[in-house]
Amino acid sequence: MSQTPQLLVAAEDSAGRAGPLPRLARLAYGGDYNPEQWPESVWAEDVELMRVAGVNLVSVGIFAWALLEPAEGQFEFGWFDRLLDLLHDGGIGVDLATPTAVPPAWFRRRHPQARLVDRHGLALGGGARQSFCPSSPAYAEASARITEQLARRYADHPALVLWHSHNEYGGANALCYCATSAEAFRDWLRDRYGDDLDRLNTAWGTTFWGQRYADWAEIEPPSHAPTSVNPTQQLDFLRFSSDAHLGNFRRERDILHRLSPGVPVTTNFMIANCKTIDYWRWAAEVDVVSNDHYLRAEEPDNHIELAMCADLTRAVAGGRPWLLMEHATSAVNWQPRNIAKRPGELRRNSLSHLARGAESALFFQWRASRFGAEKFHSAMLPHGGTDTRIWREVVALGADLPSLEPLRGTRVVADVAVLWDWESWWAVELDWRPSVDLDYRERMAAYYERLWRDRLSVDFAHPERALDGYRLVVVPSLYLTTPAAAENLRRYVAGGGTLLVSYFSGIVDADDAIHPGGHPGALRELLGLTVEEFLPLRSGETVRLAAVDADPARAGAEVTGDVWAEVVVPQGATPVLSYLDGPAAGGPAVTRHTLGAGHAWYVSTRLTAAGLAPVLRAAYRDAGLVPPDGVPEGVELVRRAGADGSRFLIAINHTDREVELAATGTDLLDGSFQPGVCRIPAGGVRALRA
Ligand code: GAL
Description:
Elements: E1 28-33, H1 40-53, E2 57-60, H2 65-68, H3 78-89, E3 93-97, H4 105-110, H5 137-154, E4 160-164, H6 179-192, H7 197-204, H8 231-259, E5 265-266, E6 268-269, H9 279-283, E7 290-292, H10 302-316, E8 323-326, H11 345-355, E9 360-363, H12 389-400, E10 411-412, E11 416-419, H13 422-428, H14 440-453, E12 458-461, E13 472-475, H15 483-494, E14 498-502, H16 524-527, E15 529-534, E16 542-547, E17 558-562, E18 566-570, E19 574-579, E20 588-595, E21 598-603, E22 606-607, H17 609-623, E23 635-641, E24 647-653, E25 659-662, E26 665-667, E27 673-674, E28 677-680, E29 685-689
Helix pairs in contact: 5-8, 6-8, 10-14, 14-17
Bound molecules: beta-D-galactopyranose.
């Protein structure tokens, strides 16, 4: 432990900008390091190669519980001491994980009542990971003990930069239906309803189907049942389950804060890809937000989904910098077909996250595993070693990162806010909705993609968050709308904002009870209309829409929708597009309502990608938004601004040909000056300082 890594500084970097990791003075580069898979003789080579690659931060110990505590209460830290010292000597900072995502086999054997039970009552097997009940007192005790041991031992270790609690809470064991969970659920409900069973009965609407409860002990989790289980019971169980994991996180965080003050604590989110965790609530509890992102490798233009996840991560982080905790250098091993990244894709992916607010590019994992479940997963150091394309790209990216330091402390400039809400996602996809084709994430991704293609930058926002300053707010799906959210949107529009709301929004309150007075109860006055009937479409059925004042026979004036249509009755709103055919033929399909100084648009069908373009363009006009002109297809743009007036434009060329963009500035990456016409090589990236 002799050498002080140059990376560790007291608080802020030399320019006075505090990043998410006060102890790390640079953008973080590295990844999960699981050296327990290798003889110690390999570790020195690892550290040597990390230095070659520019690695400055590794996450260690994530799955090491069985090795750190081989028998209950017996600890073996010698190997871990040597590892941390070695990393420190090599100038590599440590993101130190509590290993609590995988309890050792002895825990499972000793505490069979801590096993995860699925909704069919089946206790799930071991030999995997995360197969424990999140509400288990035995787990709480054991995980607190190992956390405390680690914190006591390593709080003052000079390599320590960050604590990493657990791994992907809610990933594999999101929901547990065992007797312990049932008890914990009841406790949670007593808390939510102020120990007042009448309140619960009212919230759950238990007078219907004769479900009234007379005793808390009668309440069960929504296990597999003969038919649909009470929707509010299901919704509350989802809330409870997110909170059960949050309780586990808080326990570890509080131990770490107490024993290791001043060192930030994070846990890796899986934003937009983990439905069961309400990350708005979680983000308020971590010292720094971090996220894992894996490309949907088979999907075309999957960098757009990446951008959406990065923007959503920045949103839950409150606009502050966040950490990209995991992504892949190339293929993963858990998708149906694990498509390798093409040359340059790794760099573009990492730089897109960085452009959108990440202050790290960390990967799963450092060295590819020889054995176990993830041996076909890519790594920074592939099975083929250093004479490989992936290694060369890893080294090149590590060399690139320092040039992007000026981006730290600057903020992404966004034009549009898109509302995202986990509770609404949960509620809209419960069973017995008007259509099984209601798909929250699909609508989010569809609207996001249109905005991305129009080169408008997006901030996501919670529905109850103030929206001043955005020219346009888009609500792709908000079935569950609280009165506070509805009032927030009304205030925004009345104050001059432009709002666009998509179908089946504003329908229920936080208890999944229909807002009274006709649909969409929470938004009726704001949108200036009533939805008299939902008209879900048959599988594959489409509807045609045309401008009300255009000749419907004119080809090209039409747009198409599917999945959903409605009988929309304007009450102040003006029809803009109407249905040409289908069950709502002749009725309004898209409307516009003027309220105060602003406008509220309503879209009553699932517009196809092509259909979204003209409708959003019309809303942009109201919002005074002009999508940048002349940006070549396939080029991603992110604008950043510093408090000191500095301006940056990051342009990522996802095509395989050189493109030109009208922009001036000096490229942080290669130092070249781009005078008016910025040339971006095929698959390349420019980070221009204006
Ligand atoms: C993540 C997980 C890692 C690794 C990775 C593989 O979800 O946190 O431990 O399994 O996936 O893509």
